[in-house]
Sequence to fold (469 residues):
Amino acid sequence: MTIVPLDKALPENEIESLIQRSKVEAIICEEKYLEAISKMQDNNLKYIISMDETERIDVLLYENIRLEGRKLRKEGNREYEAIEINPDAMSILLFTSGTTSISKGVMISQHNICSNIQAIASYVKMYPTDTLLSFLPIHHTFECTITFLYGIYFGVTVAFCDGLKYIQKNMNEYHVTVFVSVPLVLENIHKKVWKSIEEKGKKGLMKTMVKITQALSKIKIDLRRKAFKPVLDQFGGKLRVVFVGAAPLDKKIIKGFNDFGVALVQGYGLTETSPVVSCETDKEKRPGSIGLPLHNLEVKIKEPDKDGIGEILVKGPSVMLGYYENEEATKRAIQEGWFATGDFGYIDKNGFLFICGRKNDVIVLKNGKNIYPQELEFLINSLESVEESMVFARNKNSMDTTLCAKIVCNPEIYKDKTEEEKKEMIWQAIKQINQTLPDVKHIKEVIVTDQPLEKTTTQKVKRYVEMQK
Fold:
C-alpha cells in the first residue's frame, strides 16, 4: 500500500484538500477527528478507522481489525508474508510543509528511505542504551526518519514529548540522551540557560570555566560534563548529542552547547531527498556548516558566483521518484538525475557544505548584490530582547530596495514598556548590529510585534504568509 501521513494541525479544509488530492481509500485517526472527516466529500474514501472506542456505525475500530488479523494468523492465513515488495515503487506520499508556496506531494519509495538510513548510520552512531525524545510532528520526514526509523535501526528507546512547553521536564523524566530538534527550540533553550546563569550572578564564573575547559580539551583532558553538571542536570543530566536540521543554526548556539559537553550534529535535508543530504559525523565537524554529503550521494553547486555560492544540486538513491500527478514540477526539479534543492550554498575546500538560504528568499538589491535573510536573522535573534525575526525587502522606489525586519519581542523584558518604548529600544539594538555590517546589509525599517510569526509544525516561518500580511 501507499501511506499518506498528514499533519493533524492543518485546518480542516486543507486536510480535506490533501485527502482529495492523494485519493486515499482509508483514514486512521483519533475519535476527535471523526466528525470532520465524515463530512468530507471524497468518492475514493471507503474506510474511516478510529483508534478510539466510538458508537458510530459508519466507522471501523482499529482494535477490532487488529484482533481479526490475529485470528486469521492463528488460522493459518499467510497472505501478508507472501506480498512481494517493490522497493522502487511509491510507498509513501509526503506533502511538503509549504513555507513558500502550496504543498506538493512527494513520492518516496522503500529504497529511498532505506538507502538514506544506511548512509546516515556510517556518519553518526547511536546505541541501544540511548533514549530519544520525540517532539516534532511524526508525519514529518525529518522526525520520522531520524527519530523513529534511524532510532529503531540502532534499537534505541523513543520517549514522546508532552508538548513544546514540556521539553525540559520530559528530558528530566526520561533521562534523554539524544534529542532531534530544530534551531528555534535550541535558540530558546540556549537563551534560558544563560538567563538562569545571569540571574544567579554566575555569568563571569561560567565564562571563565568555559575558557579553562576549552584549554584542557586541547591537551585531551575533557572535563566539560563534570564542570557544567549543574547545567546538564537541568535537562536530565544524560543529554550527549543533539541532531539539528530543518533550518540553519547560528554558530554561537552550536558553540554554546559544545562548551557544556553536548555534541551538536548539524544536518541538512529535504522531503524530496528522504530526507538527509548531508550531516556532520561523530569526528568531522565544522560549526556553521551543514556537514559532509552522505557517501552515497553526489552534491554539486550550480553556476557558482565569485564566492562559490550557487544552487545546491543532489543526485543519488534517496532522491524522490517525483511529485505526485505533477509532471511539470518534477521536470523542473529533476534534470538528468540532479534534484534542484532550491537552496543556495557552497562547498569549502574540505568538502563541507554550507547553506546561505532558500533561492526564493534571497533578496537581490538594485545593484545586483545578493542578501541572505537568514544571515541577518541570526544576528537579530541573538538579542536577548528578541524571540524571533524575519528579514524581508521593500522596494522604496525603482532605484532603491529597503531591508526591513519584523521582530517578535520578548514579552518578559518589555512587560512594563509602551509600544513606542519597545520599538525605540529594539531600534537602538538594530543600529548596533548595523554598525557591524556593510552598508548594503543595513536594516532600515523595523516592525515590532508581540504575536509569534506564523510557522509550519516544524517551526519554520511561513514567509509567504508573513509577506502577505
In short: The chain has a mean pLDDT of 89. DSSP finds 16 helices and 23 strands in the chain. The longest helix spans residues 183-199.
